[in-house]
């Protein structure tokens, strides 16, 4: 009995402890639940108070007091855990919201006023900015900066245009066939180097009644920069359809800078009736342009050894020219990767070329090819190349082939006059170099040390070139006197005797079958042998036909002349540039020629807009081109011709599936 009592007491104690633990847990859960409820209620009350304060927008002191009361009440509620305290705290907010209508109205008025103020400030800022912007734009326009930027954009777009690259490839093909693919740099200057004929500030009338034929008067500005004073004279002229018109002054003073007006009037009897072009030109006689080419020479044995070592070290076999040039650049980092000659700024770029490598290996047996070329960089005409020469560095001597093309005097090679005659033609194409002469030079006996005094490293040697030439700049104006559809009377001096037998007659001879006005344009060589024309004919080798820039001419007979050599043939294709330019119905000037003169040589319209044009107004099939005395090698595929439509029975019509 004594043992059972303690055991029973222990069990009672355990039971009491378990019940106490349960009660304690229940109480804890209830306290936690009350605390959570209090926190939730306080948070909800604070949110509601904040919303009310937001609606009041803080525009009144009472609203600010309500916010403070709500915040204090919320903090007190969180500290004490009583919802009643929160309610007491919010009482102030309720008081603040009594001014809700006043505060909301004030806020609306304030917001509208603020928005209006911002609008006014923005408008004033825009006006002030526009005033300053106008002044800046006007200054930039007067300085030519905006025009230059536009030209750069056109050039940038031109470079992006894939058609441009196709046209460049075509020109590259032509100059490759002629052996005239040469490159050279040119100095850049902001001064008006050379000569240029431009529009006057105010031009005279371009349309006259028939009875006003004697009142025709045109103006242009002649600007010239006589670099180093070498120009002997600047002569002016004015012509219209083969007639010499009166021009004043006939010759300008040879000064360092010239900017004067030129006036053109018709000869006695007045201007002929019709619509035609008047060409006003100025020719500077005696311009001199020079070029300098610097080549780096090194001992060929040293160069070969270094290239072999480089190939072994890098694992590059130097299998082509690009890899060789890259290897040379790594071996001799200070050299020019593609050395080009640098010409004086001016209308003609002079090019002297050898091997365009960073370094050139040389020994006693080396023969180095050297070429002299000129490139017309302006939309004018090289009237004549008076002299052209190359000065080779000390230590070199001309090869045996130089005497065929050059007169040799010491280190100076001067192009012979009979070869200069090839360059003395207005058929030279803008931006396409024309070679004046090529030959080989070699080291003189026992003079290799003069060329490469330090055989183990690059040695600079200079090749110099100089070209003296006459250059013509011109401006053409389309005028109308009386009836524009009446062909103007031609100068009798231009109506020469018939051409050789079998070549047709002079276009001005009525027996040739010509009808209507004649048009003097630049003609290009068609090419495209094996391809189909717009009329469906297949182009044959040495074919005879023309292409004019409008489909309405397909199947018509056309008389084409160059000098006294004339051919009457059929128009079987559309081109060369435009397909919708019947310039013979308008001012007689091909749109491609206008693009060449006034749009930097970039086609301005049509589906091929953006490509570079050469100004041609008619295409001649290859056989016709050669029949008129043209040559792809000499004339680079371009000649000047005169053409007009002939009678329908004047030519043999080919049976083509016209489309």
- Count the beta strands: 26
CATH A-level architecture of the domain at 495-659: Beta Barrel
State Rg.
44 Å
- Under CATH, the topology of the domain at 495-659 can be stated as Barwin-like endoglucanases
**Beta-strand content:** 25-35%
Overall pLDDT score: 74
Q: Please state the oligomeric state of the protein chains shown.
A: single chain
Tell me the layout of helices and strands.
Elements: H1 4-56, H2 61-80, H3 83-96, H4 100-143, H5 145-160, H6 162-178, E1 185-186, E2 194-198, E3 207-208, E4 218-225, E5 233-240, E6 243-244, E7 246-248, E8 251-252, E9 257-265, E10 274-299, H7 300-314, H8 321-331, E11 342-343, E12 348-353, E13 360-362, E14 368-376, E15 381-391, E16 396-398, H9 402-405, E17 406-409, E18 412-415, H10 417-423, E19 434-443, H11 448-451, E20 459-481, E21 519-525, E22 546-548, E23 557-562, E24 565-574, H12 591-598, E25 616-620, H13 622-627, H14 632-635, E26 638-645
Parallel strand pairs: 1-11, 3-20, 10-13, 21-25, 22-24
Antiparallel strand pairs: 2-4, 4-9, 5-6, 5-8, 5-10, 7-9, 10-11, 10-20, 12-14, 14-19, 15-18, 15-20, 16-19, 17-18, 21-26, 22-25, 23-24, 23-26
Helix pairs in contact: 1-2, 1-3, 2-3, 7-8
């Amino acid at each position: 009995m004594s043992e059972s009592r303690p055991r029973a007491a222990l069990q009672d104690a355990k039971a009491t402890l378990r019940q106490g633990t349960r009660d304690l847990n229940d109480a804890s859960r209830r306290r936690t639940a009350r605390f959570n409820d209090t926190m939730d209620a306080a948070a909800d009350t604070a949110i509601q108070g904040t919303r009310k304060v937001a609606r009041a927008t803080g525009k009144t002191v009472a609203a600010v007091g309500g916010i403070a009361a709500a915040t204090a009440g919320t903090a007190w509620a969180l500290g004490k855990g009583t919802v009643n305290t929160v309610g007491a705290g919010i009482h102030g907010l309720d008081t603040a919201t009594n001014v809700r209508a006043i505060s909301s109205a004030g806020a609306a008025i304030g917001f509208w006023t603020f928005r209006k103020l911002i609008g006014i400030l923005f408008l004033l800022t825009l006006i002030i900015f526009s005033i300053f912007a106008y002044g800046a734009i006007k200054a930039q326009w007067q300085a030519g900066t905006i025009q230059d930027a536009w030209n750069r954009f056109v050039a940038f777009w031109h470079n992006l245009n894939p058609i441009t690259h196709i046209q460049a490839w075509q020109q590259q093909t032509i100059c490759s066939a002629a052996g005239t693919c040469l490159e050279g740099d040119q100095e850049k200057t902001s001064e008006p180097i050379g000569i240029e004929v431009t529009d006057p500030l105010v031009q005279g009338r371009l349309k006259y009644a028939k009875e006003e034929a004697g009142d025709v008067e045109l103006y242009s500005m002649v600007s010239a920069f006589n670099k180093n004073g070498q120009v002997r004279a600047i002569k002016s002229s004015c012509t219209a359809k083969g007639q010499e018109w009166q021009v004043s002054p006939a010759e300008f003073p040879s000064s360092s800078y010239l900017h004067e007006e030129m006036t053109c009037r018709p000869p006695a009897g007045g201007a002929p009736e019709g619509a035609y072009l008047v060409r006003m030109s100025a020719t500077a006689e005696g311009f001199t342009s020079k070029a300098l080419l610097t080549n780096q020479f090194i001992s060929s044995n040293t160069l070969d050894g270094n290239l072999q070592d480089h190939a072994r070290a890098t694992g590059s076999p130097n299998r082509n020219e690009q890899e060789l040039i890259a290897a040379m650049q790594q071996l001799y980092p200070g050299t020019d990767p593609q050395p080009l000659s640098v010409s004086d700024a001016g209308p003609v770029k002079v090019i002297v070329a050898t091997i365009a490598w960073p370094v050139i290996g040389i020994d006693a047996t080396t023969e180095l090819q050297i070429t002299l070329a000129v490139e017309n960089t302006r939309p004018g005409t090289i009237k004549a190349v008076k002299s052209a020469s190359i000065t080779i560095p000390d230590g070199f001597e001309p090869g045996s082939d130089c005497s065929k093309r050059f007169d040799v005097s010491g280190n100076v090679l001067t192009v012979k006059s009979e070869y200069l005659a090839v360059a003395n033609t207005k058929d030279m194409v803008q931006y396409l170099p024309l070679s004046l002469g090529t030959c080989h030079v070699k080291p003189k006996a026992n003079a290799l040390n003069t060329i490469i005094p330090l055989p183990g490293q690059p040695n600079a040697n200079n090749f110099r070139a100089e070209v003296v030439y006459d250059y013509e700049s011109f401006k053409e104006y389309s005028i109308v006197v009386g009836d524009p559809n009446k062909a103007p009377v031609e100068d009798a001096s231009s109506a020469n005797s018939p051409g050789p037998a079998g070549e047709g007659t002079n276009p001005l001879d009525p027996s040739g079958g010509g009808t209507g006005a004649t048009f003097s344009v630049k003609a290009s060589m068609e090419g495209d042998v094996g391809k189909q024309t717009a009329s469906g004919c297949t182009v044959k080798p040495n074919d005879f036909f023309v292409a004019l820039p409008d489909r309405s001419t397909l199947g018509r007979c056309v008389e084409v002349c160059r000098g006294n050599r004339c051919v009457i043939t059929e128009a079987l294709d559309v081109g060369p540039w435009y397909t919708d330019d019947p310039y013979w119905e308008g001012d007689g000037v091909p749109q491609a020629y206008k693009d060449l003169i006034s749009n930097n040589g970039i086609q301005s319209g049509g589906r091929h807009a953006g490509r570079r044009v050469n100004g041609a107004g008619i295409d001649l099939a290859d056989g016709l081109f050669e029949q008129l005395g043209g040559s792809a090698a000499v004339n680079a595929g371009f000649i000047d011709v005169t053409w007009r439509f002939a009678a329908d029975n004047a030519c043999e019509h080919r049976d083509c599936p016209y489309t």
